[in-house]
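Intended use. Records like the one below are meant for learning the mapping from a protein sequence to its folded structure. Do not use them to infer anything beyond what is encoded.
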Amino acid sequence: MQDYPFLVTLYTPIYHCLAAVIALFALGNNVVSAGHLVSYFGWLMLLIVMVWIIRRQTQNLFFALTVPLAFATSPYLTGYILHIRPDLLAWCLAFAAVGLFATRNQADNTSWPVATALILTAALFTKQQTMAVCCGLATAFVVKGIRFKTCLRLTLLVGGASVVLALALHWATGGTFLMHTVWYPAKLAADPSVTNLANAWPRLLSFVRAYLGLILVSLLALADGLRRGKLHLFDWLALVHLPFLVKLVSTWGADNNYFIGMLIILTLRAGVFLADLATTMPAWRRAMAYALLLALLPLNQLPWDRTKSTFPTAMPNEVEALLEEAGEGPILINAEGAAPFLASLGKQLRFFDGTETRFFEQVGLWSFHRSRMAADIVSRQFSAIVLTPTFLDPEVVRFVNSTYFLSKKLSNCSIYRPRPGNQYLLTEPGGQIESVRPYLAVSLVSSSGLQAGNEFGARFMGRAEKSERGTIIYAVTAEKSVQIARLTIYPKVPNLGSDSWVEAAWSSDGVLYHPFLRYEGSVSDNSTALFEPRLEGSFTPKSAEFTIRLTLFGSARLWTGDNTPMLLSLE
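Structure written out for the chain above:
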């Protein structure tokens, strides 16, 4: 997070390393195709593992084939394999370990625990969410027939291998591996503004509605096992997995891929139960087993499912438009939408992850304002900035809008180019009054009737309670005549009314002022978009020296500080 790309590496590395190796040695550095290939492989191998587990548990080939098929044809899962994500490979590895554990846990030889531990460790270092399976197997001695020493041996092997590998990666990455993959997720989970049950309930209810049949069959299997005094391993894995699942879907950015692990467990339990039911007497029980197969199909697609939409592809004219706008210089781009431009513009692109960097800062692990990226935006180091509408950080957008302008809007992205002229940050009122000096282009020369405050972690200024109005005056002394001046401010009117507004005016002589910007507030001023609207006004002084006056009436405020700087552009 010190230099480009500004990406938070939230997931452990096996999936990405595997895709990189395939891209390097087999696909001519095409990382997108390599990522898809690994995802398809994980999906296919996951189905094979599920077939193998049910077959070994029941000796019933029919249910071993049909139950995973119902899982595979779920609209949610078939859409998800289009994503370049580690989930399917991670769960494939995790349940390969489960299958080995379930079929060999009574064996006395030492080879299978070592193999199971290595596979589980690989799953953990593909995606951390497989920790739920590790915890389930570590405590599986509560299931009749599974020995405590077996679970203890597995726990020690997985724990030891994971600690050694994690420390090695932490050292190799200069002390950042654990910060990205352990401390950052832990801080997110502990932050109630990011992780809370209000986020979880709609997702859990949608999941239950979509997979009600599968859930009911699994509950029926649990009840049947308890009636016979035997808890199945998959029942225990589901119970252990549940609190992990609730915590995961409580996070702000949770998506339906968080349910994959639970879906697999429920599908395996249903498959084993139905296969056993089909071998019992009387005949109506066998008939019921086959009829319940239909219940395993999802009732409907999850309404909040985002996997339906595939990755956008850039049309040739869009790539051409970006090339035309950017020229030969570096291009800053939100990584969420960069894939369509990788092939033709890869060397020019400078990536940042708009979502994760935002939360990385929120939990105190990074500062955008003190980053090189913020400095480069302010100093207009990029020939173009490309922002896609997915997960945009409002703070980054505010910085971009301060020194760049929207040049072209395409179907999948917006292209910004540097604003012409020189940019100046206006001194906050309350600071030291500056004398007008030739080398200081913009000076704060007076402020009166103002009071400062803090709200939502930001600074603002408003009219003092006993003053009729609050006034700030800046003097401009440019090297040559200014043809166009643009002022950017972030006003707010908490209490709407005819007596509350913000006005900006300019004067060539300091006596007669000409208003060029007025804001009387809107209903959105008290919404969650705290620093909106961002207002920009321009005028044509055609002079090298002039003054700008900002006036606050009634409840009007102006946000100030790093998040919402007052900027003046001179051309």
